[in-house]
Amino acid sequence: MKFEAVTIKDIAKALGLSTSTISRALRDSHEISAETKQLVLECAEKLNYKPNPIALSLKEKRSRSIGVVVCEIANSFFSQVINGIESIAYDRGYNVIVSQSHESYDREVVDLQFLSSRSVDGLIISLATETTDLSHIKALHDRGMPIVLFDRITEEINTHKVIVDNYRGAYDATEHLIKNGYKRIAALAGSEFLSITSERLAGYNDALKAHGLEYSKEYVQHCYYGGMIFSEVEEAVNKLLTLKQKPDAILTTSDKLTTNCLRTVKRRGISIPDELGMIGFSNYDIAELVDPPLTVIRQPAEEMGKAATDLLLQLVESKRPVKEFEKRVLTPELQVRESAIKR
């Protein structure tokens, strides 16, 4: 049997009133008495009546929905960002539609085509690893679609952006390793095209220089898909651990790189932190439960989602064209545990 939603006709039939009376009562019109309004509202609740969102969107010229595109929901950082997005959106009367690019440019294009065809009021986007051509986003932006970029951003599009201080997070982590006696510190990074990769490696590099340690290109391994493919991470870690002068510590620059690096190291039977120190960008709560507990750079992911949504709704609800844009830079936290302290 086909599902049919309750309409104002059903309420009118149940109460023996006209549909126009029901409509005005639901709109809290002054033309309808308080008694009748109360009667209509009670009947609407009993019948589980919900306003038709399509009809409302046509009337208001707004869908009351926003689209979100991330690389992967099964990533603690992005799932926490989405929690932040939803907490603000739902409080403001907006629904959230989430799509995953899985680091694919083609999927990102399809995701954005789908969301824009559903007339979302705005978009919150974190770029995919494969995205170097931004024409699909620029086209939407040029047509007036409100867009906020977060985490993986580009300076080619003039709009609001929300990031963490990636440079500071990596600098502090590298410096912590150095102060705890590690001298040959490697870095496991994502795609060179991503903004977060260049910013985090810059912090890593500058921390080495500040403490008189030489940057070595062979100590930096890039995983194009950022840890989504375990074999790619395993191969990169094995390259580092089979160098003639192998590293005594590794900095990993994203959630999936951190967990898959740890998995590879454990499989090889390497002792952390004595044989190999380790610090990773990670929002996984399990970091403090592994043995030994993992030192991490934790990003304020939920706060990032809230900030991105707040900025997007400013664009959506503005009565005038917005010409000045903001880049919000949030502060990550170095959570020190045993994985980066020699015993």
UniProtKB/TrEMBL annotation:
- Which positions fall inside the HTH lacI-type domain? 6-60
Superkingdom of the source? Answer: Bacteria
Q: Is the keyword DNA-binding assigned to this protein?
A: yes
Q: InterPro entries attached here?
A: HTH_LacI, Lambda_DNA-bd_dom_sf, Peripla_BP/Lac1_sug-bd_dom, Peripla_BP_I
Q: Which PROSITE patterns match?
A: HTH_LACI_2
Tell me which positions the record assigns to the signal sequence: none
Question: Which one of the record's GO molecular function terms can you name?
Answer: transcription cis-regulatory region binding
Keywords in UniProt for this one? DNA-binding, Transcription, Transcription regulation
What Pfam families is this protein classified in? LacI, Peripla_BP_1
**Gene3D superfamilies for this protein:** 3.40.50.2300, lambda repressor-like DNA-binding domains
| Name of the featured protein | LacI family transcriptional regulator
Ranked from the top, the taxonomy reads:
Bacteria, Pseudomonadati, Bacteroidota, Chitinophagia, Chitinophagales
